[in-house]
Design a protein that fits this description.
Blueprint (H helix, E strand, L loop, with lengths): L2 H16 L4 H9 L3 H7 L3 H11 L3 H11 L6 H7 L10
Helix pairs in contact: 1-4, 1-5, 1-6
Amino acid sequence: MKQESAEVIAIQALGWLAGNGELLPVFLGSTGASAQDIAARAGEPEFLGSVLDFLLMDDAWVVGFCDAAGVAYDRVAPARMALPGGNLPNWT
């Protein structure tokens, strides 16, 4: 996947998170980001990678996002791999 396509998916995921009143505080708490950070950093590939890192922590979150955005379930992980830091080995 090209980085531009990955960024589109990540921006969609960020929008989905921002509209999710239950999950947004969890994202903010786990990343240390503030609402202002989201607005200021939404165009940064590194920040978008953190959005997908968070989303990929729970299959239910991936399914919820994909169902809402019309994104195939198998597109989220490749999108993460296309963003900075996504090519690091996963030891879990």
